[in-house]
Amino acid sequence: MKIMLGVVFCFAMMSCSLTELGIAQNDEYDGVWTGPSVSPPTSSESVTYVSAFDYPLGYDWRADPDRGVVKCSLIVYKEGVPILKVPVGDKYCVSPDPDMHRIIDGHLYTDYSTDASTIIKKDGKQLIEYPCPEMISDFQVINGQVHTLGHSRRGAGFAYRINGESVLERDSGYSFERIFVEDSTVFIPFSEQIFSSNGAIERYYVWSNGKVSQVALRDDVKKVWDVAICDGEVMCLASLVGVSAPVIVTDSGMMALSMPSSLQLLSCRMNVLSDAIYVEGILTDGKQVQSVLWDPDLWYTLFQKGLTFSAICKGDGSLHCTLNPASGVDTGLIYRCGETLAMPRGYACMSRNAMDFSSGMLSIGLSSESGGKPVLWVDGQTKELDVNGYISFVVSEQQ
Fewest C-beta in 10 Å: which of 7, 247, 264, 351? Predict the structure, then answer.
């Protein structure tokens, strides 16, 4: 086991509004609009989709005082051309939360929770409804079936479902928010507490093929930050008694990550790339936070104080990320293949999913901190998107 921690984009239509394209606006927002079919450029190996929330002109989408009831649309662009517009709000069971939609195989999938159920839509039309309000942490379409991993909005517990039908369900504990698929086999790591005379003790498990297996841990593990599957092996990201830096524990051994002794670890998480693992973390000196990224060789990059991870994507055998500015920091950063670039001043990445790497090119949806129009950043070139809102999702898919 080896542990190792492109798009040619058609900008021509990007700044055109629906009206400029000769598309009538629906003032009542009472239906789903589908636009023209768009063929990808012959020179491109992939097609880029972008989704953005569009609010009425003059509405302050940053404060969003009328959240859930204000007129709003979720627009999907393909190669810069709007192809789908879905009304957003409680009335339509489509959430304004950027984490509650995604584009997969050219289709827009949304999830929404009422007090009694979870509703999943595909391209604005209801696809699945099941009687449990859940917060979806992972959503995948595998062989045409919708796989979801959701945590109950009623309290503790989680469920892994296929097309809304429960496959694994727990009334207590929590998952690690990801569905791992290797060679068509699904793995779900999770944690539950057991109670004894000494109090509550965390236990860690992996579900696969209908069976639950307990994860064996060293006696000196004091905290488990994350559990992941990499190349068929269970990986635990943990802190040990007497050791400040985190370690990756496997059945075959342990790997220690290094970090400055003057800093304290607040959180960390693994990102799996085939047979390689990157680790993202947040450190503190007691006054400010600092983001850190450990690479496949366990070397770390410590970013400027006050910057926090906002989006992460995989591509070309590497991990890429954006870091948003915080108080006292003027500009954010873009980390691309080990290279650090300045984010355009006055912009931030508003969604963890607004970033993608394909065909050697990095695409990022950047939104205006002052409430202006968002831009799509592609390898240093930017183009404005004509919406009063922000970019929520960016993905490039092979056609």
Answer: 264
Residue 83 CB contacts under 8 Å (≥ 6 apart), including other chains: 34, 35, 36, 37, 38, 76, 77
First to last CA, the chain: 33
What secondary structure letter does DSSP report for 58?
Answer: T
**How far apart are alpha carbons 248 and 233 in whole angstroms?**
12
Q: Which residue is associated with the tokens 């005082």? A: 65
* Residue-level pLDDT at 316: 77
* 264-269 long-range contacts, CB within 8 A, separation 24+: 265/239, 267/225, 268/225, 268/226, 268/237, 269/225, 269/226, 269/237
How is the beta sheet containing 81-87 ordered, strand by strand?
A: 33-34, 81-87, 73-78, 46-54, 389-398
8 A C-beta contact, residue 292 and residue 273:
no
Separation of alpha carbons 374 and 123, rounded Å: 23
Bridge partners (DSSP) listed for residue 143: none
Sheet holding 233-240, edge to edge: 221-230, 233-240, 247-250, 253-256
Map tokens 């993905």 to a residue.
Answer: 395
- Coil, helix or strand at residue 323: strand
**Nearest-angstrom CA–CA distance, 157 and 34:** 38
Residue with tokens 């609010």: 55
Beta-carbon count within 10 A of 287 CB: 6
pLDDT, averaged per 10 consecutive residues of the chain (399 residues), comes to 38 38 42 66 74 95 90 94 94 94 96 95 96 96 96 92 96 94 93 82 92 90 93 91 88 87 92 88 91 89 90 86 78 89 92 91 93 93 94 90
d(CA 375, CA 388): 11
Assign a CATH topology to domain 33-131+217-398.
Neuraminidase (2.120.10)
Burial pattern 201-210, b for ≥16 Cβ within 10 A else e, equals eeebbbbbee
Q: Is the pTM of this model over 0.70?
A: yes
Rounded to whole angstroms, the Cα distance separating 342 from 348 reads: 11
Provide CB contacts within 8 A for 138, sequence distance 6+. Answer: 147, 148, 149, 177, 178, 179
